[in-house]
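Need residues for this backbone.
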């Protein structure tokens, strides 16, 4: 009897596929068609075990970002300081990516395209770049309807002080 794969092995399959194809992929349920990331054994929506890796176009919006000032990883040291963004992909899942080609600091709501940069035959780096020059400058990056639905940055959210205020 063979043992079931560990989650690292499922993620390993995804990274190897992206390294081979140089395309962004996520796992998708073949029953309810929900895209999920990171990869899982079962769909978190319908519970199906029928999952497949599908390519994505990589468009999305920045939901959060930070600047990394220090790292102990030798692969990342030449990049310090660098910006990292959380991107909500148009297909639904969120990924963490290295921000590149932003003329200024990334901002929440900025439209981006996420691509992959193969680092080996089994690992890729997610890269987020501004979707357009207009978006990169931060001028008019969001339409009025998008701006009204943009998430509030965590730093601006009210901090609950009592049990009753907790969500």
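Answer:
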């Amino acid at each position: 009897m063979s043992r079931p794969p560990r989650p690292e092995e499922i993620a390993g399959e995804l990274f190897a596929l992206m390294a081979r194809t140089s395309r962004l992929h996520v796992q998708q349920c073949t029953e309810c068609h929900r895209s999920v990331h990171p990869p899982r054994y079962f769909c978190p929506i319908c519970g199906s075990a029928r999952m497949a890796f599908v390519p994505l176009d990589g468009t999305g919006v920045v939901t959060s970002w930070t600047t990394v000032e220090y790292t102990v990883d030798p692969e990342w040291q030449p990049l310090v300081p660098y910006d990292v963004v959380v991107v909500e992909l148009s297909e639904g899942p969120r990924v963490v990516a290295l921000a590149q080609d932003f003329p200024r600091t990334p901002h929440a709501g900025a439209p981006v395209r996420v691509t992959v940069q193969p680092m080996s035959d089994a690992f890729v780096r997610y890269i987020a770049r501004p979707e357009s020059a207009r978006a990169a400058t931060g001028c008019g990056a969001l339409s009025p309807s998008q701006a009204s639905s943009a998430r509030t940055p965590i730093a601006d959210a009210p901090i609950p002080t009592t049990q009753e205020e907790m969500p």
